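=== RUN LOG ===
request id: a7f3
mode: sequence -> structure
chains: 1
length: 347
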Amino acid sequence: MNIALTARAAQTYTRDRVAPSLRSVPSASENKCAPVAAGRADLLLLVAINFMWALKWTLSKVALRELQPVSITLFPMIGSIALLVPLLRRKLKDRPAYLGVIRKEALHPANLLRFFALGAVGQVAANVLTTWGLKYVLATDAAFIGLVTPILNALLAVFIAGESLSWRLLPGFILALAGVLLITGVNVHTGTIPSWYFLFGVLLLFAAKFGAAFYNAYSKKLLDRFQPAEILFYSYIFVVVSLCPFHVLLEQPLSMQKIAALHWQTWLSLALLCLFVYGLSMILFLEVLTRRSLAPVSVSIYLMTVFGVLISTTALHEPVTPNMAGGALLVLLSTIFANAGKKRIAR
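=== RESULT ===
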C-alpha cells in the first residue's frame, strides 16, 4: 500500500513539474507558421510602402505649380523631423541621449560623416533631382523611369555592401539604359531627340535613382548600429541644413503672405509628402530591411511604378505611349536578367 502511494505521488510530482515545460515548447507546425505569417506581413507592408512612394511624382507635380524643387523637398522634410521627435524620444527613453533624441554614438565624427552622406547626398539627390526633373517630364514618365531602381540597387551593392560582381550585371545595366532611352522617345537611327528639356529632365530623374539606391544600400549597413527612426532623423537634419542655403540663394524665400496664399492643393501635397512619402513609408521600409535583405525587397519597387502610373493617369490625365510601355518592359527584363541565378553572399 505504501509502495503504491509512493509511486502515485512520484507520478503526480513528475507530471506537475515536467508538463508545464513541455506545454511551453511550441510545436513544429507553430514554428513553421511564424515565418510564413511574418513574410505575409512584410509583403503587405511593402505594398503599402510602394503605394505611398508612388504618390511622390503626382504630389510633386501639383506642388510645382506654385513652388520650386528645393522648397518642395525642404518644407516636408522639416515637418517630418518634427513628427519623428516624439517617436524617437519613445524609442530612446531607456538610453542616454541628448534632448532625448540624439545618442552620443551618433555624434562620433565617422557617424556624422555617414549621416551627412545619407542626407546631403542620398536624400537630396533622390528628392530634389526628382522634383527638378518633373518640371520637364510627365509624372507617368518618371514612374516608368523608376523601374531602373532595383538594378541600380544591385550595382551599388557591389561597391557599398561588398557583394560579388555578376557577369550579368553589366549587360543588364546596358539593357536598362536602352529601355530608358526608349521611354524618352530618342530615335537611335536618326539621333533625333523630342526635346532637349525633356532629355535633361530624364537625366535628372536617372541621377535621382542613383541617390535613392545609394540611400537604400547605405542605410542597410547602418541598421546594425542605429534604429530606423534614428537613421531618418539624423539624415533628415543634414538634408535641411544642406538645402537651406540653396533655398535662400536660388529660390525666393516665401513670405508669410505668399505662404498663406498657396492653393489648398499645394498645402495638401506638402502635407502628404511629409506624412507618407518622407515619414511613414521610410520608417516602415527601414523596419522591413531589419528583417529582410535588400535584393528581394528591391523587387517590390516595381509596384511603385504600377501605382505611380495609375495615380498620374487618373489624377493628372497623362497619356501612356507605346514607347513608354516598351521601354518599361526592357527595364523590367534587364533587372530579371541581372538577378537570374543570383545567390546570397555571406558576409
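=== NOTES ===
Residues 49-339 form one domain.
Strands lie at 97-98, 102-103.
=== END ===
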